């Protein structure tokens, strides 16, 4: 191997070692999970792991990608350090705000690092790129309410419709709705219903066919249990108590919750039929008299 080749090989070896001279040794965020529209503080710890000092250390978060839903908040996305001695560590703090329309998920942020180092009498530059991640999530908020159409008349089969509303900023998945026993109600279908996913700012309905007993109380408390998971598969459970009113048919009609059956139409039809029969009988009798 000639002298030039040996020198070139040594330079490559030295350069490769310097490529790894800077390392991200720790990343933390506060809070650990950030909701859409909220602020997060990201701390990146960088260590000089080589046996040389480095200068002009520049650390930049690349937030320009369409899949990076963050923006700098009251600070820059770029930090500078004049010198980092061998074996030393330095924390770089960034304050970001999550864009309001961001969906729940884990987002990667490219970190671009550049620095200078001495090689003999020469000052050389190096660059590297790494990735950190930030989780966008917020605790789900589910609400349960009765559909406005629910009217329970004692002694009849009725339909109870529950509306499950996701009023939170994050989606939920694997949602199960379970109805507990309630005095005066007999459920005709399975009391545990699987809903699945309910997106943020959306809702879903679940229906139960019930028979309301004749002696059902005027007010029935219906316990509804919800179990579900968020984006990170964390499990949640909660209970809602709904109050259902029951009515006699007469009360429901009086309050305008039920319509009185229209019996005049069948009566008129019956009278017409009877009148026609009477007319035929009378007509036959008259014809018989004329023939005589």
Overview of the molecule:
With 292 residues, this protein is an alpha+beta fold. It folds into 2 domains: 3-136, Immunoglobulins (Immunoglobulin-like); 142-254, Sandwich (Immunoglobulin-like), CATH 2.60.40.10. Helix content is 17%, strand content 51%. It is built from 3 helices and 18 strands. The strands form 4 sheets. It has a 5-stranded mixed β-sheet with strand order 2-9-8-4-6, with no helix packed on it. A hairpin with a 2-residue loop joins strand 8 and strand 9. It is rod-shaped and about 140 Å long. The termini are far apart.
**What is the string of helix and strand elements?**
HEEEEEEEEEEEEEEEEEEHH
Strand order of the largest sheet: 2-9-8-4-6
Overall pLDDT: 86
Describe the largest sheet. 5 strands, mixed
**What is the count of structural domains?**
2
Radius of gyration: 38 Å
Describe the structure in brief.
The chain has 292 residues and is of the alpha+beta class. Helices cover 17% and strands 51% of the residues.
Question: Which secondary structure elements does this structure contain, and how are they paired or packed?
Answer:
Layout: H1 3-19, E1 22-30, E2 33-34, E3 39-48, E4 54-61, E5 70-72, E6 78-84, E7 89-98, E8 105-119, E9 122-136, E10 142-146, E11 152-153, E12 157-166, E13 172-179, E14 185-187, E15 192-198, E16 202-212, E17 219-229, E18 235-247, H2 249-254, H3 264-291
Parallel strand pairs: 2-9, 11-18
Antiparallel strand pairs: 1-3, 3-7, 4-6, 4-8, 5-7, 8-9, 10-12, 12-16, 13-15, 13-17, 14-16, 17-18
